[in-house]
Structures are given as structure tokens and as C-alpha cells.
Structure to design on (339 residues):
């Protein structure tokens, strides 16, 4: 069999400039420059600051990925890039850079969907995805349940958040508790010393018959509860809030598996790094006879390897490359796996 092509993937949809290099499903390099420190004092990602940081980080991040893999530009066979969804200005930097590398090196360009890339990345760790599988993507910008017959061709949305994303709820509650941004990892850590049963927070939409989520009521409930107390035990609030989120997420994910009679669940996106989500998902999947796949935390948060992984699947499936004039589409729908 001929050697599979080397694909370089570029991710700039939010605050991480990510560059990954894969051959087939083998990960050769994954380098990231984050502008998070520049956003932390604002309590959220500032789009213009992110765009500027991508511009400065792009060339050095590509060069360090090549160095990590021990490769030269001339070894690269294809370029993949996140074309959307994400922050418009941030996406634009990655798409422009990818076009330049594609044209300069004379190799095909593949514009890909950021969410599908979060699904495809798991193959770098756990091998080819079962067809179909259910994927739950939980990040700062998205909370979605997907039916994935084929990540390179066909992704179907089953439900999503009607208000805040799961990661957004973690970040906002962390702020209420006086924890730094981004709050997810801090809540995860604080919760280890608290009781998940200390406070009964609401589980929005949990048994409403849909596969949608809602986290804004929970966020408000935590804020009201904290306001009403003379003093609080942060670990108990963190653990009780976290339990409410992961209880709903895992229940809905298993409802989706049952409804579509699918026995493989993938959890991805930044919130999939959450230790309680990982353990409760495993417990409930075991009880339901569902196989669980969760990429390691470094592949769950935004990175370039996920983009390269999906690009590699597109090349392998013989899908035609993107035109050199593809736009960056900040609201690219999940059903559009590549542009
Ligand atoms: O996928 P990601 O890196 O970027 C987006 O596309 O949004 O996800 C970032 C989100 C943030 O909201 C962050 O607080 C959350 O993932 N996060 C976590 C954990 N690590 C990151 N949330 C809960 N527990 C964690 N351990
Ligand atoms: Zn993401």
C-alpha cells in the first residue's frame, strides 16, 4: 500500500493557534500557542485580541510543528484548516494562512468544520470511529449531541443548547465563585474537596423528551444561591454545580444512544477534560452497555491535530479539495463537514 499522505492542520477558531501534522491516523506533531493570558483579565476571549495573536503566532507555530515532526515544508501533501464555526476574525487568519501554504507548496486545501474535527480527533488515539456513533461535544462555545454515520461525510445534529454552552456555564459560575478564567479546570479541581450533594441545583430540560440542553437556569440558580449566603464553602458549590451539569450531559447522551440504538459514544470538546464528566460517563455507559471513547484532555481542547485528522479522512475518502477562495464562515452549520 502506498504511504498515506502527510496532512498539516491549522486551527484558529477561538484563542488557540493550533498546528497538527498527521499521516493517516498517526499523530506526528501537535503544537499550540494560546492567547488565553491576554484574555484572562477581561473574563472572556476578546475577538480582536485573539485575531492579532493568531497573526503573530501562526508562522512560529507551523515551524515548531514541522520541527517536532522532523519534517520540511516540502514533505507536506495537503493542508487542512478550520473554516468555521468560530470567531470571524480569528478564523480568517487561519484560512488565509492555509491558502497561502496551499498555493505556495502546490498542495490541496481542505476547509473543515471545527465540530466535526472535535469528533475526528479521537481516531488519533483510539483508531477508526465506529459507524455510526453518537458524539457529544461540550466546549466553551458549543454543547451538541450528534449522530455521526461518517465523520468525513455525514454528521446529523440531534440537539444542542438552547442558551449557554456547558463550558460557558463553567466559566460564568467560576466567576461567581471568584475563580480565574477559564473556570472549567478550576471548578474541576475545587470540586474534588466538596460534596456533590451539598446543594440541590436544578437539572434543566433533563427529562423533557428532547436532546437539547439548557444551562442558563442553573447558572442563575448558583448565582442566586451564592448571593443569599453570608459565606460559602467554594468546594461544595463547585461540586454541586458540576454534578448538575455532568448529570444532565451524561443522561442526555445515553438517551440519544438509546433512541438511535447506537452503542458507541464519543465525548469531545474542552469540557470533556472534566474529571467528573469522564468518570460518570464511564459509569453510566458501562451500565447501559455502551462503549465510551474520550480523547485525552490535550486532544479535547482546541488543537491543530483535530483539523489534520479530519483533513486526513477527507483525503482518504477521495473528497475533492476546497477552492482557494473558500470563505471563513463563523456560523458554519455542523451538517457541513467540509467546504
Ligand atoms: O474546546 P475548547 O478548548 O474551546 C472551545 O471551542 O470553546 O473548550 C474550552 C472550554 C472552557 O469553557 C473551559 O472552561 C472548559 O472548556 N474546560 C473545562 C475543563 N477544562 C476546560 N470545563 C470543565 N472541566 C474541565 N476540566
Ligand atoms: Zn472547540
Amino acid at each position: 500500500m502506498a504511504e498515506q499522505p502527510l496532512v498539516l492542520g491549522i486551527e484558529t477558531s477561538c484563542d488557540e493557534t493550533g498546528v497538527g501534522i498527521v499521516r493517516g491516523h498517526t499523530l506526528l506533531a501537535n503544537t499550540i500557542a494560546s492567547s488565553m493570558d491576554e484574555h484572562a483579565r477581561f473574563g472572556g476571549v476578546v475577538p480582536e485580541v485573539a485575531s492579532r495573536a493568531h497573526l503573530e503566532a501562526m508562522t512560529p507555530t507551523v515551524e515548531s510543528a514541522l520541527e517536532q515532526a522532523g519534517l520540511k515544508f516540502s514533505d507536506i501533501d495537503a493542508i487542512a484548516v478550520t473554516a468555521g464555526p468560530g470567531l470571524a476574525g480569528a478564523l480568517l487568519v487561519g484560512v488565509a494562512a492555509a491558502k497561502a501554504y496551499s498555493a505556495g507548496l502546490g498542495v490541496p486545501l481542505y476547509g473543515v468544520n471545527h465540530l466535526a474535527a472535535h469528533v475526528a480527533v479521537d481516531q488519533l488515539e483510539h483508531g477508526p470511529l465506529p459507524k455510526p456513533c453518537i458524539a457529544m461535544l461540550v466546549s466553551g462555545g458549543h454543547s451538541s449531541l450528534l449522530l455521526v454515520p461518517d465523520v468525513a461525510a455525514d454528521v446529523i445534529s440531534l440537539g444542542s443548547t438552547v442558551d449557554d454552552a456547558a463550558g460557558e456555564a463553567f466559566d460564568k459560575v467560576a466567576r461567581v465563585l471568584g475563580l480565574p478564567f477559564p473556570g472549567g479546570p478550576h471548578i474541576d479541581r475545587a470540586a474534588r474537596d466538596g460534596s456533590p450533594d451539598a446543594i440541590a441545583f436544578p437539572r434543566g430540560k433533563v427529562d423533557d423528551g428532547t436532546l437539547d440542553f439548557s444551562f442558563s437556569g442553573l447558572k442563575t440558580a448558583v448565582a442566586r444561591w451564592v448571593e443569599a449566603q453570608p459565606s460559602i464553602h467554594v468546594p461544595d458549590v463547585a461540586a454541586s454545580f458540576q454534578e448538575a451539569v455532568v448529570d444532565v450531559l451524561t443522561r442526555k447522551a445515553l438517551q440519544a444512544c438509546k433512541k438511535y440504538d447506537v452503542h458507541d459514544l464519543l465525548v469531545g470538546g474542552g469540557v470533556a477534560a472534566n474529571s467528573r464528566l469522564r468518570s460518570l460517563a464511564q459509569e453510566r455507559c458501562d451500565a447501559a452497555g455502551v462503549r465510551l471513547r474520550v480523547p485525552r484532555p490535550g486532544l479535547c481542547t482546541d488543537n491543530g491535530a483535530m483539523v489534520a485528522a479530519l483533513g486526513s479522512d477527507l483525503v482518504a475518502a477521495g473528497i475533492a479539495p476546497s477552492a482557494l477562495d473558500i470563505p471563513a464562515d463563523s456560523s458554519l452549520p455542523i451538517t457541513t463537514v467540509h467546504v
Summary: The chain is about 45% helix and 20% strand.
